[in-house]
Design goal:
The complex is a heterodimer of chains A (about 400) and B (about 290).
Chain A lengths: L1 H33 L17 E7 L6 H20 L8 E7 L4 H13 L5 E4 L3 H6 L1 H7 L3 E3 L14 E3 L4 H14 L4 E7 L2 H13 L6 E8 L7 H8 L5 E5 L4 H12 L5 E2 L7 H7 L7 E5 L12 H17 L5 H19 L6 H9 L4 E2 L4 E2 L14 E7 L2 E4 L2
Parallel strand pairs in A: 1-2, 1-3, 3-4, 4-5, 6-7, 6-8, 8-9
Antiparallel strand pairs in A: 10-13, 11-12, 13-14
Chain B lengths: L1 H31 L6 H17 L4 H24 L7 H23 L15 E3 L2 E3 L1 H23 L1 H11 L1 H6 L4 H27 L6 H15 L4 H21 L5 H15 L14
Antiparallel strand pairs in B: 1-2
Helix pairs in contact in B: 1-5, 1-6, 1-8, 1-9, 1-10, 2-3, 2-4, 2-8, 2-9, 3-8, 5-6, 5-8, 6-8, 9-10, 9-11, 10-11
The chains are: A alpha/beta (about 400), B mainly alpha (about 290).
């Protein structure tokens, strides 16, 4: 009896081990498929020689997985294009992608690995603000330039000589949005922001800037990332005398907020941040997304740049290639990755002599008038974001799609 | 006044969801004396599978039923493969196995269904109902109705059927139940299937309001567990009361104190109950469960 049970347990153990093994093989298969876009795939006759190694730390799992996925798609696509076109001054580009699982400790560990083991000349990332800040110690120690795809002001202000960022920071977007509210004749707003990095940062800047635009925050509400019910906050905004709701978050909770607001019967217009400029928001909020106004770069509707301009060409070319490769239009977050990678590549092409982290950093900082998907980048020693309000447009969601706000 | 009413509506809405998840904890605890830490993942699976079936083209009601059935089957399968082999049903080992199972279910969902947030249409379209200045979403009415029906079905199952009596006998005394001919292992498998089904019901009914993603299980697991402990582990009436109470407490804290502390409520409640009244709010001596 005992022997049989033992055998049975052994059988289960073997089955479990086999299952674990099978899973690992499947995962490894995907893993090696993932890196297929790297330098090794350069076609013959294109780039050759010692590859230039760049690290990328993305959130491929965890809360920001929806953003990191698009960023990785872009990197795979661009590395292939760049290498097919001869690489960087004849040398192939290799991007080593690490997943930080939207976890700050893992982001720091990935940065250390990329610097120590892979000896990369630059780091792209991270996807999130917290993860970007978490690797600063390693970046500073090693003197490797970093181009972040995250939007918190703290990333580039105060300026760290090594750290650049491609999204429009809240310090640019908030005044732009408040000016628009003022133009609409709105003087009292109910603010709702997330208690994470992006929302907190936005909330602080909005509170500081609002008086300059004659706007009073009559109710200041917050919520935690992952919250699934905002009716308490919205009920309070509804009875606060606000003329509009300003919602500052990049999370999926934005869809819940606008749905709750519609269900509560608040007739107040809702203004969002550039953090919701992705299709998942419209899909998640459904009919409740109609009429929401938000600031974002011109990438959502490249015609905002004006047809025939260089920015229009760059943006439409990017959108067309991404759509052809992945079957859907890129999010603004995918655009951040395009800009980050290409800023590094363009700078690397300009370096005379040895390509070292120091010379690459200097070349990135000297970038002027480079047109990416987010706008025209002009870096200086004091400005490591490089974008201005001219790169922003107000959008309104109409019939489940972006349209330019009046 | 309408503000308070609105908070109470929100509280009862979330409370119902917590109650269903807490019932899942309770059903498994009654049968095994173990806490099933994969319960939150069953909640997640209900929503994710429902959306997946719906996107494949199934009509929404069918997709919802299929998601609940599939999750219940996954619950039963999980028990057969991972819990049943555990010698003598040692609760501590079952707990450890369910923690591993939770991670496995979450990662498999991520692998097969992807990392994105997924939306779902409301069960019935239309504007909210207005009651004394407060608004009740149609989906909230669905949540209440589905919860009432689920609890009623569970009560009838446990009180009126031979199967339910066998479940209760297993819960009260395993050895004695086995002696009188109850198939105890089958009852444990059934408890996992029922718990998974309850979690899935909660997951699919709340998704139209919140969207869902592979990672929502852990947070809901904590809330459901706190609700189950609040009501007294193993007591189904207590689980429902605990869930509703937790939902109301959260809504009032969010409304009158600060929404940022909302999530802390469950933790504070959990600790307070464990320190002050481990048998739960309704619990008497801690015996006579179910």
């Amino acid at each position: 009896m005992r022997g049989r049970r033992l055998r049975l347990q052994m059988a289960y153990l073997i089955a479990a081990l086999a299952a674990a093994l099978a899973l690992t093989i499947v995962a490894a298969g995907c893993g090696s498929g993932d890196s297929g876009g790297s330098g090794s795939s350069a076609s013959p006759g294109a780039a050759s020689g010692e590859p230039i190694k760049v690290g990328a730390i993305l959130s491929l799992t965890g809360t920001y997985a929806g953003l990191g996925e698009g960023e990785k798609n872009v990197i795979d696509m661009e590395v292939k294009r760049i290498n097919d076109a001869g690489g960087i001054n004849g040398r192939p580009l290799e991007v080593i992608v690490e997943d930080d699982a939207t976890d700050e400790a893992k982001a720091a560990a990935a940065a250390a690995k990329l610097i120590e083991q892979d000896e990369v000349v630059a780091i792209l990332g991270a996807t999130g603000s917290g993860q970007t800040m978490a690797m600063r110690g390693d970046v500073d120690r090693a003197g490797v330039p970093q181009v972040s795809m995250a939007g918190a002001t703290a990333i580039t202000n105060p300026v760290d000589p090594l750290v650049f960022a491609t999204p429009w920071s809240n310090t640019i977007v908030v005044p732009f949005t408040l000016q628009y509210l003022k133009d609409q004749g709105i003087t009292k707003i109910g603010l709702i922001s997330d208690s994470g990095g992006f929302g907190k940062d936005g909330q602080a800047i909005i509170s500081a800037e609002a008086p300059n635009y004659g706007i009073e925050i009559v109710d200041d509400e917050t919520f935690n990332p992952g919250d699934t019910d905002m009716s308490a906050q919205l009920t309070k905004i509804k009875s606060s005398g606000a003329e509009a709701i300003l919602m500052w978050t990049a999370g999926a909770e934005a869809a819940t907020i606008v749905k709750n607001a519609a269900d509560l019967g608040t007739d107040l217009p809702i203004y969002g941040s550039h953090g919701i400029a992705r299709r998942e928001f419209i899909e998640g909020a459904g009919a409740a997304a109609e009429g929401i106004t938000l600031p974002a770069g011109k990438i959502l509707m490249p015609e905002a740049y004006g047809e025939g301009t260089e920015a229009f060409t760059v943006a439409t070319d990017f959108i067309d290639r991404y759509t052809a490769a992945y079957g859907e239009a890129p999010s603004t977050f995918a655009g951040y990755a395009y800009d980050a990678l290409n800023l590094v590549v363009e700078a690397a092409k300009k370096v005379q002599g040895d390509l070292t982290p120091e010379s690459l950093r200097d070349a990135i900082e000297q970038t002027t008038g480079w047109v990416g998907t987010g706008g025209t980048f002009n870096f200086t020693a004091e400005d490591h974001n490089g974008l201005t309000v001219d790169d922003l447009t107000m959008y309104q969601i109409k019939d489940g799609d972006w349209s330019q706000a009046q | 006044m309408s503000e308070l009413l609105q908070f109470l509506i929100a509280g009862l809405k979330n409370g119902c969801i917590y109650a269903l998840v807490a019932l899942g904890f309770t059903v498994v605890f009654a049968a095994t004396r173990a806490i099933n830490f994969a319960q939150g993942e069953f909640f997640m699976l209900g929503g994710m599978l429902g959306v997946a079936f719906w996107q494949l083209g199934l009509p929404l009601p069918l997709a919802a039923v299929a998601a609940v059935a599939a999750t219940a089957a996954i619950g039963a399968l999980f028990e057969l493969l991972a819990v049943r082999p555990i010698k003598d049903g040692d609760p501590l080992r079952i707990i450890i196995v369910t923690i591993g199972g939770a991670v496995l279910l979450r990662q498999l969902t991520l692998h097969f269904l992807g990392p994105d947030e997924r939306p779902l249409d409301a069960f019935s379209a239309g504007a909210s109902f207005k009651v004394w200045g407060a608004a009740i979403e149609r989906q909230t009415v669905w949540i209440w109705a589905v919860t009432v029906v689920s609890v009623a079905v569970l009560a009838i199952l446990y009180r009126r059927t031979a199967f339910g009596k066998a479940m209760r006998a297993t819960a009260i005394r395993r050895d004695a139940a086995r002696l009188v001919g109850v198939n105890v292992s089958l009852m444990v498998t059934a408890s996992f299937a029922i718990a998974a089904g309850l979690g899935a019901v909660a997951g699919i009914t709340v998704t139209p309001l919140t969207q869902t993603v592979f990672s929502v299980g852990a947070g809901m697991g904590v809330k459901g567990f706190a609700a189950a402990v609040l009501g007294g582990l193993g007591d189904p009436v207590g689980a429902v009361c605990g869930g509703l109470l937790l939902g109301l407490l959260e809504a009032l804290v969010a409304g009158y104190i600060d929404p940022v502390y909302k999530d802390a409520v469950a933790m504070v409640v959990l600790l307070l109950v464990l320190f002050v009244r481990p048998q739960g709010i309704l619990g008497g001596s801690g015996r006579e469960k179910l």
